Amino acid sequence: MHEQHHKEQQKGVFTLLDRFLDVPEAKVTYLTRETPIDRLMARTFLRLMPISVTPNQITKFRLLTIPFIAILLGLDFYIAGTILFLFSAFSDALDGALARTRRKITTWGTLYDPIADKLLIGTVSVIIVSKYIGTWLALGIVFIEILLISSAYFRYKGRIVPAKTMGKTKMILQCLGIIVLLSYIVFSVPVLLTVATYILYLAIVFGLLSLFVFRSI
Q: Among 78, 67, 205, 207, which residue's Cα sits nearest to residue 131?
């Protein structure tokens, strides 16, 4: 009985995505498939969240934190800015896991989740990557994000395009690189600056692969 209800829910999600995202069924299956990280989150952090909390609310939280993170980092309140960035970046894993495990994928979330990610990374890159590593690296990160959004829009004629594995890997590397860079700023450990630089350059490589090879955002 539970399995039948689960299949009906999944079918409903497929219908919604097929209609609004206009992607083949194989890609719809890929988008809605739970990952090992999703299942881990469901057994841990998601257990603490009320049923009333939706993935879209978490995405909106991430969007709202961006100007506060920018102000804190811009005014050199690095510890507070780092803590808020960690919460904001972690919310990216939360909303995706919540959407897939509780079958709450929406058109709005599919569109604005990657936009929130790119705004978060782009804003922090302009503020701290340009200051502590180099302007060209910061501009490279931002430029690739703009290219990915623009390419997806024109390639799919304005349709909503879900992120794929390569794009998600890029996002993880970007977040990791920025966290390591913030750790360098807070703790003044020189080797962390080198590690952060390599990670962020690797993120650019994955961004280019997303753009030219795997065509994801």
A: 78
